[in-house]
Amino acid sequence: MSTDLPDVSALSIGIVGGTGDQGKGLARRFALAGHTVLIGSRSAERAEAAARELDVEVRGAENAVVAAEADVVIVAVPWEGHKATLEALREPLAGKIVVDCVNPLGFDAKGAYPLPVAEGSAAQQAQAVLPDSKVVAAFHHVSAVLLLDPKVERIELDVLVLGDDRAATDTVQALAARIPGVRGLYGGRLRNAGQIEAFTANLISINRRYKAHAGLRITDV
């Protein structure tokens, strides 16, 4: 695999909707890697409380502050609030790499299942809402439990990175590799994000059956 990726060590990372387990887990791992990390929420107080829960130094602030200050912004909001949250942040996110890790899923007695999205995927919806941002889809299949567990030093998995801007996908691949054990692999154009998001439902089924925190590894790369 080519290692010709940019140096991203100085980039600050903001996580919109960072008070959930996925957002806090990513915040924790990037802070451990030496990045300045900002956790965002609609409420500054809630964001600050989430930041204090972690065993690393991160800062909490309102989503708009995080979107304006961070170099790269990860979107980790619940699907139900995805579009409205991004519409409110269109201006501060202009010109930035926006990493969407949202999985549009439903749950019923049979388990998790993918929800239809008019634009094709959450990532494509984000790009439609944020025409002046470079939207990249990534981090869909990383277990929040593993991210948050201080006993887990390495997370052995591949993060599939999808997008239409090569420099942006290279940057996100390099960011993924800042987490020990993780590789960031290019997974195609943004139009292919739907099946990546939907596959999370399969992983949830695997995890429930085998009581695991399964991820993905791509062979022969």
From TrEMBL:
<dbReference type="InterPro" id="IPR010185">
    <property type="entry name" value="NpdG"/>
</dbReference>
<dbReference type="InterPro" id="IPR051267">
    <property type="entry name" value="STEAP_metalloreductase"/>
</dbReference>
<dbReference type="InterPro" id="IPR028939">
    <property type="entry name" value="P5C_Rdtase_cat_N"/>
</dbReference>
<dbReference type="GO" id="GO:0050661">
    <property type="term" value="F:NADP binding"/>
</dbReference>
<dbReference type="GO" id="GO:0015677">
    <property type="term" value="P:copper ion import"/>
</dbReference>
<dbReference type="GO" id="GO:0052851">
    <property type="term" value="F:ferric-chelate reductase (NADPH) activity"/>
</dbReference>
<feature type="coiled-coil region">
    <location>
        <begin position="44"/>
        <end position="71"/>
    </location>
</feature>
<protein>
    <submittedName>
        <fullName>Reduced coenzyme F420:NADP oxidoreductase</fullName>
    </submittedName>
</protein>
<dbReference type="GO" id="GO:0070967">
    <property type="term" value="F:coenzyme F420 binding"/>
</dbReference>
<keyword id="KW-0175">Coiled coil</keyword>
<dbReference type="GO" id="GO:0006740">
    <property type="term" value="P:NADPH regeneration"/>
</dbReference>
<keyword id="KW-0560">Oxidoreductase</keyword>
<feature type="domain" description="Pyrroline-5-carboxylate reductase catalytic N-terminal">
    <location>
        <begin position="13"/>
        <end position="104"/>
    </location>
</feature>
<dbReference type="GO" id="GO:0005886">
    <property type="term" value="C:plasma membrane"/>
</dbReference>
<dbReference type="GO" id="GO:0016651">
    <property type="term" value="F:oxidoreductase activity, acting on NAD(P)H"/>
</dbReference>
<dbReference type="InterPro" id="IPR036291">
    <property type="entry name" value="NAD(P)-bd_dom_sf"/>
</dbReference>
<dbReference type="Pfam" id="PF03807">
    <property type="entry name" value="F420_oxidored"/>
</dbReference>
<dbReference type="GO" id="GO:0008823">
    <property type="term" value="F:cupric reductase (NADH) activity"/>
</dbReference>
